[in-house]
Each structure stands twice: as C-alpha cells, then as structure tokens.
Amino acid sequence: MITPPRILSIAGSDSSGGAGIQADIKTIVMLGGYAMTAITAITAQNTCGVTDVVALSPEMVAAQIDACVSDIGVDAVKIGMLGSPEIAHVVADRLESLDVPVVFDPVMISTSGSVLADAATIEAFERLMRIATLTTPNVPELAVLGGDAAMAARGVAYIAKGGDAEGPIVEDRLLRPGELPLSWTAPRIETRHTHGTGCTFSSAIATFMGQGAGLEAAIVSARDYVRAALLNAPGFGAGHGPLGHHIRG
C-alpha cells in the first residue's frame, strides 16, 4: 500500500461544489492524495455567481491548520480564497515554519465575476507570495498584482495562467528568479464549464509536488488533469458549470 501525500487546502467553501475547498478535495483525492482542509470562508454560490460570503475568524482558521499539522502532518499546501487580511496574515504565520511545497492561488474574483478579495487582503498577499513555492495568478489577478515587472521585482516564482486571455491558443508561462521562462501552449477548449479551473489547477500542482514531483513536472501533470476535467464536465448549471473532477487526466 502506497501512503498518500497529505495535502492541506486553505480556502473558502463553495456550496455548489465546483470550486474552492470542494474542488480541492475532489482533485486531491482523484490524484491519489489525502485531503485536509482549513476553511477560511463560507460562500453561498452556484454556477451563476456568489450571493453571500461569511469569513471565519482568523483564530478558527489557525486552529484548523494547527489541528491538521500537529497530528496528521502535511506534505504540501494549497492556498485559495482567504476572506480577510487578518486571515491572510495568520495563514502566513503558520506556513512560515513549514518546510513543504506551498502553492498560492491568489483568488480575487470568481469565474462568474464576484469579488472575493478586497484591497487590504490583496496587500496581505505579499507575505504569502514570498512564502509560496509557486503563485498561480490568472490574467486579471496578474494585472492587479502589477504585471510581470512587479512580480519580477518581488523575486517570486509564478505561473501566469492564460485561460482568461483571448485567442484560440492558451499559454501558461512559468517565471522563476534567475531562470529562463518556460511556457506551455495548447488549443483552447471552448466551453462555458470552467467553474473552479484555478482551484483545480493549484491543488493538482500541490498534490503532485506532495508526491515528490518537481515543479515543472507537477505543472505538466496538473495541466493535463485540468484539460481532461474540462473535456469531461458534466454540464451542470445555467452559468459557468463545474469541471468533471471524476476523470483523471
């Protein structure tokens, strides 16, 4: 029996199951990991949008992290929606002492366009980007973070996801301090069922790294899984539907 890697997802709950903690758990389990969670916020949402958000207390988020790490242990961490700057800082406090891969998805806006991070929370992202092994902004998130020049000045590793850009080809660019850029391209999958793609991608990278894969190999495998999940979306919902997490890439 192979012991599964222990993956801790620190993120918000999506009541419709397509993104957030729910997408992370599905992804981690389908890829052979053991999923643990520290829920940062509870959202009422579906494929059409977010109708309500309640952030948990920073103390409760910290308690969840401590409970998992102190007993089960952890091999990799994925960070998603945080809910408040106070939560962002308490997460940074806990992760600074952990020597495991950390994948930070700087969630600011949901697929449906709902704002999930205010200016103070985005400012608190600075600490988490410094701690993270990899930060995974999409096109609008990268713009809010100041673009490639600002990310280079921070000296952090990040993958600029291209799914939100225009055109028939999607390009994901990996940039790391002191190393040549790498990029992966693939034909765009035309579908409205894209809810939770960022959550799925980041948790897949964390799972593969928790299994011992290097960063580049983890990204390649995560891209394959996301593309397979897009192609096998179940077709649920009237808006941006969920992926088919049950299909392994």
TrEMBL record:
Keyword Transcription regulation appears in the UniProt entry: no
EC assignment: 2.7.1.49
Record carries keyword Ribosomal protein: no
Pathways per UniProt: Cofactor biosynthesis; thiamine diphosphate biosynthesis
Keyword vocabulary terms for this entry: Kinase, Transferase
Name of this chain's protein: hydroxymethylpyrimidine kinase
InterPro entries according to UniProt: HMP/HMP-P_kinase_dom, PM/HMP-P_kinase-1, Ribokinase-like
Domain (Pyridoxamine kinase/Phosphomethylpyrimidine kinase) ranges: 14-243
Gene3D superfamilies xrefs: 3.40.1190.20
One of the GO BP terms on file: thiamine biosynthetic process
Database matches in CDD domains: HMPP_kinase
Superkingdom of origin: Bacteria
Any single GO CC term annotated in Swiss-Prot or TrEMBL for this entry: cytosol
Organism: Novosphingobium lindaniclasticum LE124
GO MF annotations, alphabetized: hydroxymethylpyrimidine kinase activity; phosphomethylpyrimidine kinase activity
